[in-house]
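Renewal narrative, Specific Aim 1. Our central claim is that a sequence can be written position by position from structural information alone. The example that follows is taken directly from our test logs and has not been curated for this report. It begins with the structure tokens describing the chain, in the order in which they were read.
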């Protein structure tokens, strides 16, 4: 609610060299701790912070607040103002409208069977004299085909990332399962030696993934590890795209703007 935004902005007012954000308050979309506010912060610049605004927006009643859609795989509204009280109110307006918003054409449902689906992952920081809030729209709607969430990593990506996408990952830093340390070391060795990776249960799950990129490289002992890291990065980008409520397509942007219009009604 508005008080949560006020707390985040109070924090960066005292520690302007830090970012601070809150994990979402619903399961699946990053709410790993739901019994209390789950804030995370630090002195670090994430990729999302440096991403530009690709389309400017304006919210009725808050015309002095700079707003826009961020060029990012997930669905992010950036708000900027020197007045942190007004900024908190604007953030709360967006959250309030998002909680009750549905658009069946893109599988956004505010609730089904009394279960709430829409929420926000907010991140606050300072940029000079201005306070900045990035509001990441989240939705945890599930179907029989996607029991872990429609806006969750596609099952074809689960060999790399199956877990929920939380605050740190939203901003572009992958938090990957520890099993990958051993799996990627073994996989790199097998690829360099030309071995059949389907014969080892640690690497067999990655076979289709390797087939999708192996022909693009001359794989050797010297570069196998680096190649796998590059491809994991590309896979994580796909994970973030899956987690984005509005896809980075013309149709997705049109749907995004329909929500903005709903906020302004």
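The sequence written for that structure reads:
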């Amino acid at each position: 609610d508005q008080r949560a935004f006020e707390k985040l902005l109070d924090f960066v007012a005292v520690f302007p060299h830090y970012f601070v954000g809150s994990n979402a308050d619903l399961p699946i979309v990053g709410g790993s701790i739901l019994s209390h506010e789950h804030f995370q912060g630090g002195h670090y610049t994430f990729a999302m912070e440096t991403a530009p605004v690709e389309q400017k927006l304006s919210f009725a009643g808050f015309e002095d607040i700079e707003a826009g859609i961020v060029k990012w795989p997930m669905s992010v509204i950036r708000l900027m103002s020197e007045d942190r009280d007004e900024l908190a109110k604007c953030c709360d307006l967006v959250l309030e409208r998002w909680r009750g918003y549905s658009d069946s054409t893109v599988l956004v449902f505010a609730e089904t069977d009394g279960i709430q689906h829409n929420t926000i992952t907010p991140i606050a920081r300072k940029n000079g004299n201005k306070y900045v809030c990035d509001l990441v729209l989240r939705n945890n709607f599930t179907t029989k085909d996607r029991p872990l969430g429609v806006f969750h990593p596609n099952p074809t990506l689960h060999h790399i990332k199956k877990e929920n996408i939380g605050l740190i990952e939203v901003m572009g830093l992958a938090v990957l399962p520890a099993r990958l340390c051993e799996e990627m070391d073994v996989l790199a060795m097998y690829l360099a030696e030309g071995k059949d990776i389907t014969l080892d249960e640690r690497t067999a799950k990655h076979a289709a993934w390797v087939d999708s990129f192996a022909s693009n490289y001359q794989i050797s002992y010297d570069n196998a590890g680096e190649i796998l890291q590059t491809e994991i990065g590309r896979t994580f980008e796909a994970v973030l795209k899956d987690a984005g409520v509005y896809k980075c397509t013309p149709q997705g942007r049109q749907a995004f703007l329909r929500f903005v219009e709903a906020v302004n009604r």
